[in-house]
Recover the amino acids of this structure.
């Protein structure tokens, strides 16, 4: 009997050994991955009432922690929330954390791995970790100007970036909202505000529409076709492209019409210059049909489409070509080539593509964060320009630049011109279903010979005259402001 | 059978010394809670410290009179666990505004009173052998109670194991753990020869007669019945394990344990296939971290929140009062291990598990040392039930196995569990007293030469 008792004891001990193993696994080996689990809000709970670092623009805090006299000692306060809602996101116990508040949470809470040594000494001294300050690349004057350009009641996004460094100078979207509503310590009011805002069309509570929402890019996508055509070697700057008023497909009743608002219908053959200046559809559709879907996809990828991993530092929604359709038939490929069908892009993606053309074909990683500093003003992180990918050759980039200059000088983006500065630009007008409304785009850069700024403007669901009035002329104003002309 | 002879010394003074350490642990934990959560050291704090010390001393003094040779480690370990549990429950009360701490104090008092009564009134554990069949009837009665309309508390967190009498709710299954162990020990110690020797042989396998196994089958049905009718997987595993270990210790036949495990595996698989709540529980365990299961009604939210809490605690823990264990549902009862893991860290949880291992080890030691087979079986059964209970609940919280609603002995908020476990401790103390006291001049002949009867 005693031997059986000893054996049972061994079984009991074996059970305890298993427990030691599973406790070690949860609290040590798997702890990092559990702490990083997206469903885990412990970090948020731990830091919710603590003094987080500020987010700074032009030296002034746009998000800061202010002392309260309740048990929860600090509350997040947003200054100029409408202007910056899409960038800061919010930090809420009840609605979650988004935007920079989420992407930079370790820095803002002062719990980065770099701060490990500080944390160890804090563990002994009893001092709580202190948040680091995050200074943005945003120029507050340009940000304000861009925001005011979008009329109330109209949705829209504007991105201004530096093509050489990837630094975001301005990024706005409308409609916006007051992020302070989400940061409240009163759950009922947060829940009510959330329920109301989440249903407002055009508001993306989880980040600016400029990098979270995708739209049909329309004719700005023709820049991809152009780059693909030149890269293939089958086309050069003097190629003559077919320009029928309507493109027919064998055996199908469907025809693809040319662009109605330019001078496309005046000739049935077109140079790249003419096709781009007037934004004709059929020449680019024929390029795509000639090169095939894979060649266009490859060039789109090189400009950053279909990239699901980009962060700046918040995660950017992937722009898509060809989108959900997979293998495209002739008409679908033709429509995709002019930025319709299932092709979608974020305004940030279009700005990045333009920046690659402006920067000799080198696409820089976009970034919002200029510097991260500890409370004692030690700089722990500073913006390092980083090449994301080589989108095209310098020669092709220069050629496309020249054509984009003539789109502004002689073509349909004339309103974007700035006296004394060469501006390169491209417009886009993408039909939105059968609503008769369009996504109106402008994307361009200046000065063309030494590009300093890229401006991308996007107004979804507007009629053609409104779109034209809100895009190119505003781009001109922004170029004047940033170039101080 | 071989007797493990220890020099017969009472060791009550060592117990007193260890008790001071154990009390220190509970009181210091409570002090930390007050310090970290900004509470003042009001009268409550000193009263509680005094009450805990008084209760411990009451048991200690009782032992000096009634079980002088009892194991000196069991009581301090129990007091340490009980005190830590009280501190953690108090800590959670402060954040949640609950009053579970007060109820736990009340139940601790009642439980210790019950333990002291057992120690005073029960002259020798062998007396319990007379109540073998009464214990079986009582077990059946206790297990059926939660299903009786009128006093049943209905479905609570998916299991029908509670009864409600006025303001008190009670889990009769906790007490049934003791009565079943008494029944198994009494029945097996009386009938092991019959079970072993009577009956047909089938090849090398000695089959027992059905009538000798009858009561055992009844007990087995009880454990399966708990699963089927009360949806309580944890208690079912506990009873089954109790049954297996006692029959193994009684007969030394490992083959029967294998047969039992195969039966249980078949039963388990059938339950998984037939009962949707078992299927859901297993699926929820496997896919616990899948957001779809976290968000689901009755999904893995509880266990995943517990894991997040424990990961948050890491090696050293956040410190008592510094974490947020209150975001785990049932943080002070089913999930108290996660609360301890978060605030006291891996180190603290290891210490708690070591305390359990120590307690269970002393129980097994009493089983080895005591001279009668009834006492051996009872001590092994009760100790192994503790071990299994710790394994099922701590394993469930750490996602080693699916989470079931067993209580964490001495730590978790809950009166019935506390009461039952203190009574078990009293029984183990009694048995260890029998094991360690100087040998009686005439050992009972029926307990000798039973070690290996050739299975002729």
């Amino acid at each position: 009997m005693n031997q059986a008792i000893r054996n049972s004891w061994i079984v009991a001990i074996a059970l305890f050994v298993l427990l030691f193993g599973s406790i070690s696994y949860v609290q040590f080996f798997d702890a990092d991955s559990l702490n990083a689990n997206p469903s885990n809000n412990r970090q948020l709970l731990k830091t919710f009432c603590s003094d987080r670092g500020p987010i700074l623009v032009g030296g002034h805090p746009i998000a800061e922690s202010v002392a309260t006299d309740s048990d929860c000692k600090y509350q997040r306060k947003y200054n100029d929330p409408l202007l910056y809602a899409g960038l800061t996101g919010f930090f809420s116990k009840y609605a979650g954390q988004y935007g920079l508040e989420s992407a930079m949470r370790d820095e803002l809470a002062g719990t980065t791995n770099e701060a490990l040594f500080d944390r160890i000494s804090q563990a002994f001294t009893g001092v709580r970790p202190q948040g680091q300050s995050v200074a943005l690349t945003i120029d507050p004057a340009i940000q304000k100007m861009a925001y005011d350009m979008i009329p109330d009641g109209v949705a829209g996004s504007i991105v201004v970036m530096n093509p050489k460094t990837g630094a975001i100078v301005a990024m706005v979207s409308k409609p916006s909202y007051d992020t302070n509503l989400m940061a409240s310590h009163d759950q009922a009011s947060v829940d009510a505000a959330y329920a109301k805002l989440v249903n407002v069309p055009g508001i993306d509570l989880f980040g600016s529409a400029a990098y979270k929402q995708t739209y049909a890019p329309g004719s700005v996508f023709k820049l991809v076709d152009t780059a693909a055509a030149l890269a293939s070697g089958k086309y050069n700057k003097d190629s003559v492209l077919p320009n029928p008023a309507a493109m027919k497909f064998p055996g199908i009743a469907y025809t693809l019409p040319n662009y109605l608002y330019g001078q496309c219908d005046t000739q049935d053959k077109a140079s790249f210059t003419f096709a781009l200046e007037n934004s004709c559809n059929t020449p680019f559709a024929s390029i795509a049909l000639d090169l095939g879907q894979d060649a266009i996809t490859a060039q789109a990828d090189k400009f950053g489409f279909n990239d699901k991993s980009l962060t700046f530092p918040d995660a950017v929604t992937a722009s898509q070509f060809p989108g959900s359709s997979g293998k495209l038939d002739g008409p679908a490929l033709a429509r995709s080539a002019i930025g319709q069908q299932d092709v979608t892009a974020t305004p940030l993606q279009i700005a990045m593509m333009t920046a690659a053309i402006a920067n000799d074909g080198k696409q820089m990683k976009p970034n919002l964060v200029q510097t991260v500093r500890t409370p004692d003003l030690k700089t722990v992180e500073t913006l390092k320009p980083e090449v994301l990918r080589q989108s095209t050759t310098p020669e092709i980039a220069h050629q496309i630049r020249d054509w984009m200059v003539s789109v502004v000088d002689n073509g349909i983006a004339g309103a974007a011109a700035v006296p004394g500065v060469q501006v390169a630009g491209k417009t886009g007008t993408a039909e939105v279903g059968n609503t008769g409304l369009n996504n109106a785009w402008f994307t361009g850069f200046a000065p063309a010979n030494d590009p300093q700024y890229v401006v991308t403007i996007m107004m979804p669901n507007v009629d053609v005259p409104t779109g034209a009035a809100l895009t190119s002329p505003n781009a001109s104003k922004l170029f004047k402001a940033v170039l101080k002309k | 059978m071989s007797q493990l002879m220890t020099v017969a010394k009472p060791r009550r003074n060592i117990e007193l010394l260890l008790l001071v350490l154990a009390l220190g642990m509970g009181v210091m934990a409570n002090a930390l809670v007050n310090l970290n959560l900004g509470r003042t050291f009001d009268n409550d704090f000193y009263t509680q410290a005094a009450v805990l010390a008084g209760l411990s001393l009451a048991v200690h003094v009782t032992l000096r009179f009634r079980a002088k040779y009892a194991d000196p480690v069991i009581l301090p370990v129990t007091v340490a666990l009980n005190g830590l549990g009280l501190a953690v429950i108090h800590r959670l009360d402060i954040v949640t505004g609950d009053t579970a701490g007060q109820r736990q104090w009340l139940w601790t008092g009642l439980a210790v009173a019950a333990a002291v009564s057992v120690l005073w009134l029960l002259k020798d554990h062998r007396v319990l052998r007379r109540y073998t069949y009464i214990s079986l009837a009582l077990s059946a009665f206790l297990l059926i109670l939660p299903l009786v309309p009128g006093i049943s508390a209905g479905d609570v967190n998916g299991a029908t194991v509670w009864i409600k009498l006025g303001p008190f709710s009670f889990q009769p299954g906790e007490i049934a753990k003791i009565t079943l162990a008494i029944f198994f020990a009494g029945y097996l110690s009386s009938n092991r020869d019959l079970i072993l020797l009577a009956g047909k042989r089938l090849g090398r396998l000695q089959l027992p007669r059905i009538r000798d196994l009858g009561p055992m089958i009844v007990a087995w049905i009880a454990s399966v019945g708990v699963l089927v009718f009360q949806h309580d997987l944890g208690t079912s595993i506990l009873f089954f394990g109790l049954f297996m270990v006692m029959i193994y210790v009684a007969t030394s036949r490992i083959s029967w344990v294998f047969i039992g495990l195969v039966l249980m595996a078949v039963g388990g698989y059938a339950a998984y296939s037939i009962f949707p709540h078992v299927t859901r529980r297993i699926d929820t365990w496997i896919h616990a971290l899948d957001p779809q299961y976290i968000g689901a009604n009755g999904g893995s939210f509880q266990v995943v929140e517990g894991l997040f809490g424990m990961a948050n605690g890491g090696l050293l823990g956040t410190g008592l009062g510094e974490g947020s264990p209150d975001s785990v549902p049932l943080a002070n009862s089913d999930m108290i291990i996660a609360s301890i893991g978060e605030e006291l860290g891996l180190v603290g949880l290891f210490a708690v598990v070591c305390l359990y291992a120590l307690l269970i080890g002393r129980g097994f030691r009493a089983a080895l040392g005591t001279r009668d087979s009834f006492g051996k079986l009872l001590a092994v059964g009760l100790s192994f039930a503790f071990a299994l209970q710790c394994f099922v609940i701590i394993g469930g919280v750490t996602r080693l196995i699916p989470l079931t609603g067993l209580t964490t002995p001495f730590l978790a908020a809950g009166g019935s569990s506390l009461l039952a476990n203190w009574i078990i401790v009293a029984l183990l103390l009694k048995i260890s007293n029998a094991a360690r006291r100087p040998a009686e001049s005439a050992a009972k002949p029926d307990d000798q030469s039973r070690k290996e009867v050739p299975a002729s």
Observations:
- The first strand of chain A starts at residue 55 and ends at 57.
- Residues 121 and 249 of chain A are 72 Å apart (CA to CA).
- DSSP finds 20 helices and 19 strands in chain A.
- Residues 218-367+387-482 of chain A form a domain with the Beta-lactamase fold (CATH 3.40.710.10).
